[in-house]
Amino acid sequence: MNRKFTFLLLALMPSFVCYAGWEMRAEPNPSSVSVALQSEPNSDELSSLHLKGYPSIEMPKTVRPCCSFGNDQPVEIADLPIPFFRYANTVGIEDIGPHGYDAGTLSLKQSTPVSIPDKENNGQMYTMRGGFIDFAHVRDTADNTVALFYQIYPLLGSDARIPLPKEIGQRYIQLNKFDTTKYTPLQRWHISAFLAAKMAFSMAEAHEIAQWHGYRSWAHWPEYVSAFSPEDLYSNMLGAKVALALLANNLAMTEELYSQHMGNWLIDTVKALQPVTKDQTNFLFKVTDGHWWDSSKPLPKKYMLLKRDYQLGHTRKPHLIPAELLTKHKDLLGLDINDFANAQPVTLALPDEIEGIEFDTIAQQWLMIDAKFKASFNHIPAQVWQNGFNNFQFKKIALLDKKQDILELQKLKQSALD
Question: In the list 49, 73, 97, 176, which could disulfide-bond 121, CB 3.0-4.6 Å?
């Protein structure tokens, strides 16, 4: 082989073949080595490990484009309609691609698309027991859960701050000091995993608030239409629950291992929620047109979305389509109206405490508001947000945002009559 070519190939190899993703190494503590040599080792003591990252995992730097509720909508940019284009965003279970950690296509830093191929094939799907599922939301929160776990575990019990990607201002997770010596290594692992899931879901709640108050993943595309969309937080909770299961089973020690198992668990979990076909999901969007969304309004008009879920919290009930909405349709594409009447929703939740520890006492997410977003908080008492706010205020802010939307809609309807 030509020597110059060989040198060039070796010089370029690190840029495209050496990256294997993040890895975590678990080194045993001296006590666990001693226990391992015993004839009847204690399983809790065997779990006394020290995690080392090569390199340490960082918080995801991109987000996956979430799907606006609805299907086949017209689109406009800067109030200019895009002719001959409709936004289709539904998928069937057979369409779902493999998971990739931090595989978003929108940078959290640049407000512009980044060049990452989308092999995940995300979209929306209706399930009989979980309502509409947005796979971008599921995957984003799963990634955040795993990343936060590896940030939290070595800091658990200490006074520390974990910076988060900026949205409408700086934000971070504040960890509070408490005594961890009375907990076994396995208990500390579980506390860290559940806390990571809680904080990752809290990030999803903060994202809904940020969208309502003007945050944009892409500078030219306002996201008001996506704020508090009915499928969003249920999908986020689903991602947190799946990632928590992977952490509990040590299936997320490397990026490759995590991505493989996340893909498998995602498919099996959605199957448990009884998904319908892609054509049936398209049909169900038509069924909800005029009730949950308005197909006559182009994206990204805010009130294309008619149904929102402003009720935040760590217990999520799915929004299932009521059977009466199907009675006006003759061809149900193989769906049985009785299945909708008798549907058994799957409620998802995360506990408020574990091992006697209340999560709210050991961690909070804090958000600061940049100057350009402050006007959007004028309907909220200044003492709630002016010096920053944490997840304890999320419910209050969301409900005040709801009141503001009701007033705005009333004005729009009145204006249309005048």
Answer: 97
